[in-house]
């Protein structure tokens, strides 16, 4: 099974970084020689895909993301790694189409979500800041205490 990780975006919301956002260190792990080292955020996705059955991962990267190629090389401890280039960030569908030539037609595919599960690109609803007797929201009722 293949895993596809779209990684061509610029990460403009978290700039300035001197490296690709997928390599942002979050937590740590022990290396093969027992020393602690930082763990890139993308490693968590690689780990989860491997646990789900992926044996090969295809990173879809932009031409400026050579640091991802240098970080992972052609494999990591648990999966083989391939790369395809998306000349400019053009969305998830384009990233999947770019990966298509390296994945056999009969091979199952996992797609790594570019956003965390449950998150939205639109602003989330906010609880009302003032109570309104005409509102049907239970949080705006004067007799209802705040659930948090």
Automatic annotation (TrEMBL):
E.C. designation(s): 2.7.7.9
Composition-biased stretches (Low complexity): 113-148
EC class of the enzyme, as a word: transferase
Pfam families in alphabetical order: NTP_transferase
InterPro entries the record matches: GalU_uridylyltTrfase_bac/arc, NTP_transferase_dom, Nucleotide-diphossugar_trans
Enzymatic reactions: alpha-D-glucose 1-phosphate + UTP + H(+) = UDP-alpha-D-glucose + diphosphate
Biological process, per Gene Ontology: UDP-alpha-D-glucose metabolic process
Gene Ontology molecular function terms on file: UTP:glucose-1-phosphate uridylyltransferase activity
Coiled-coil positions: none
KW Transferase (keyword) present: yes
Residue stretches making up the Nucleotidyl transferase domain: 3-111
Name the record gives this protein: UTP--glucose-1-phosphate uridylyltransferase
Organism: Rubellimicrobium mesophilum DSM 19309
């Amino acid at each position: 099974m293949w895993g596809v990780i779209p990684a061509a975006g610029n990460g403009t919301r978290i700039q300035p970084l001197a490296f690709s956002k997928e390599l942002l260190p979050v937590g740590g792990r022990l290396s093969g020689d027992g020393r602690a080292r930082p763990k890139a955020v993308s490693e968590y996705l690689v780990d989860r895909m491997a646990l789900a059955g992926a044996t090969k991962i295809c990173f879809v990267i932009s031409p400026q993301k050579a640091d991802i190629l240098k970080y992972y090389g052609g494999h990591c401890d648990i999966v083989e790694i391939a790369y395809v280039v998306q000349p400019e960030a053009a969305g998830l569908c384009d990233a999947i189409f770019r990966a298509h030539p390296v994945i056999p037609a009969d091979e199952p595919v996992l797609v790594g979500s570019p956003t965390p599960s449950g998150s939205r690109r639109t602003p989330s609803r906010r609880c009302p800041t003032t109570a309104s007797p005409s509102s049907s929201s239970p949080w705006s009722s004067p007799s209802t205490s705040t659930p948090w």
